[in-house]
Amino acid sequence: MPRRSVMLFAGACAAIAAALALTTVFVVTGRERAAETMITDAGTGQALVGGPFEMVDQTGKAVDQSLLDGKWSLVFFGFTYCPDFCPTTLAAIEATKARMGAKGDDIQVVFITVDPERDTPEALKAYLSSDGFPEGVVGLTGTAEQVAATARAYRAIYEKVGEGDAYTMNHSLTVYLMGPDGKFRSALAHDLGPERSAQLIERVMARG
Known about the structure:
Pfam families: SCO1-SenC. This is Protein SCO1/2. GO terms for molecular function: metal ion binding. By secondary structure, this protein is of the alpha+beta class. Helix content is 29%, strand content 20%. It has six helices and nine strands; from the N terminus they run H-E-E-E-H-H-E-H-E-H-E-E-E-E-H. The strands form two sheets. A seven-stranded mixed sheet has the order 2-1-5-4-3-8-9. The chain has a two-stranded antiparallel ribbon with strand order 6-7. Helix 4 links the parallel strand 4 and strand 5. Helix 2 packs across helix 6.
């Protein structure tokens, strides 16, 4: 599958996050601490991540936020033409689940595209079946409006760069840990590493 170069725009992420009065950490190097801090409203203390959405999975089935009910889930945004961060994150999640043993078997992985123009259900299904990725990843796509609405709910940031077939997608890299009630629990940095990610998830799971 062809790959396109992707650029990070951490500065834009930080600026928008500050404007929204979010309390979070977007970690971009392994030397920094994990983003375990809740993404919250500074005034109410309520989590600002997650909420209703309507999309389509890789089988073409219409799904909504009830997809998260009853399961611990790792949710992140990306696209199938991503050359590095998306496949690296998926492989890291697979390694994280392996380190968690039986606990890892119960974690659902949800990959939400930011590129609905190219990422059809069929494209997602082919991509997510790649070797080295977690088994059973749920891929979500939809109309441009549905993708935008879901990204807003999760405070995910993305941007199309370029024209024609050569375009790529800038996007934020945070992985969201959602509880069995479908509510946000913690954020994981994309480069935290399997061992530390497993430890963080297990701590959060122990709190319920």
